[in-house]
Write a structure and sequence with these properties.
Layout (H helix, E strand, L loop, with lengths): L7 E4 L17 H14 L3 E4 L1 E2 L5 E2 L2 H14 L3 E4 L9 H5 L8 E5 L3 E3 L2 E3 L3 H13 L3 E6 L3 H11 L8 E6 L9 H9 L6 E6 L4 H11 L2 E4 L6 E3 L2 E2 L3 H14 L7 H8 L2
The protein binds (5S)-5-amino-3-OXO-hexanoic acid (KMH) and zinc ion (ZN).
């Protein structure tokens, strides 16, 4: 589907970074809420959310998700999308726990993969469990595709009626162990979608800008944010999530894709 308006998702924290790698990483609930608000003011309508514990480590603790969610909602209107991926090694019980807070959206990764030196486990029973908890809590899944085989699982689950025909897909390209962030791969993946599917691309690291520009040109949507890319340009760290969002919004404007508001994002995704 060619969309005129461009949905920008901002992944503000992630689970892999720390302040030694990236000194401006938001970690406390207030810092994360401020980063989300700034990203929304710059054009993001979806906030992909991971949270951190009091020591700055990734956590799926329900209380922390609740606190951060409430702080974000007090600052701005946006669609909050919880991570159910957590960090590699997070148990399934922990990964699904925050869904009881009924966020509008949450991620659903469609298969197990190497994740750098680690394994990001998403066996079929894991996927089915996360999906059931999402359905029980009226949470819209965003299907995360990191590798080609995950498309097979997605298509099978759609055939079986487990995932609705109209779902939103996020291609996360560039994780070591996953699919490379190339134009050919993006075209290959999007060719497999039905015409009425909406999709986003998250190009990691230095692929962020080329994947962004191609998604805009192809009628897809874009994910940006510090979780995906800590550099603004070569040898220059991004100063904030909003700096990255602003650049995507500027490019989209030049390319004739006005940035989607939160309300139009809900319309486009049938939320
Ligand atoms: N941190 C990765 C292991 C998601 O948010 O659902 C998983 C991840 C995907 O970031
Ligand atoms: Zn994530």
């Amino acid at each position: 589907m060619i969309n005129k308006e461009l949905i920008i998702t901002c992944a503000v924290v992630g689970a892999e970074l720390n302040r030694e790698i990236y000194p401006y990483l938001p970690v406390t609930p207030d810092e994360i809420a401020i980063a989300a608000e700034e990203a929304v003011n710059a054009g993001a309508s979806i906030i992909h959310l991971h949270v951190r514990d009091e020591n700055g480590f990734p956590t799926q603790n329900v209380d922390v998700f609740e606190e951060v969610t409430s702080k974000i909602k007090n600052r701005c209107d946006c669609i909050i999308q919880y991570s159910t991926g957590g960090a590699v090694g997070t148990s399934l019980v922990e990964r699904s726990a925050p869904l009881i807070l009924k966020p509008e959206m949450a991620t659903l990764t469609m298969g197990t993969m190497n994740f750098g030196a680690d394994i990001f486990e998403n066996s079929l029973p894991t996927i089915e469990h996360l999906l059931k908890v999402m359905n029980d809590n009226s949470v819209m899944p965003e299907v995360e595709i990191f590798d080609c085989g995950m498309m097979e699982t997605l298509e099978e689950m759609v055939r079986q009626g487990q995932i609705q025909k109209h779902h939103h897909v996020d291609f996360v390209l560039g994780v070591p162990g996953g699919m490379a962030p190339t134009i050919k791969n993006l075209v290959f993946l999007t060719d497999r979608l039905a015409n009425n599917q909406t999709w986003t691309v998250a190009g990691l690291g230095k692929a962020h800008l080329p994947m962004t520009m191609h998604a805009i040109a192809m009628g897809g949507h874009v994910r940006t944010g510090i979780e995906d890319n800590i550099y603004y340009k070569k040898n220059e760290l991004a100063r904030s999530n909003s700096q990255l969002v602003s650049r995507v919004a500027r490019i989209a404007g030049e390319m004739g894709r006005p940035v989607a508001t939160v309300e139009s994002t809900r319309d486009i995704l049938s939320l």
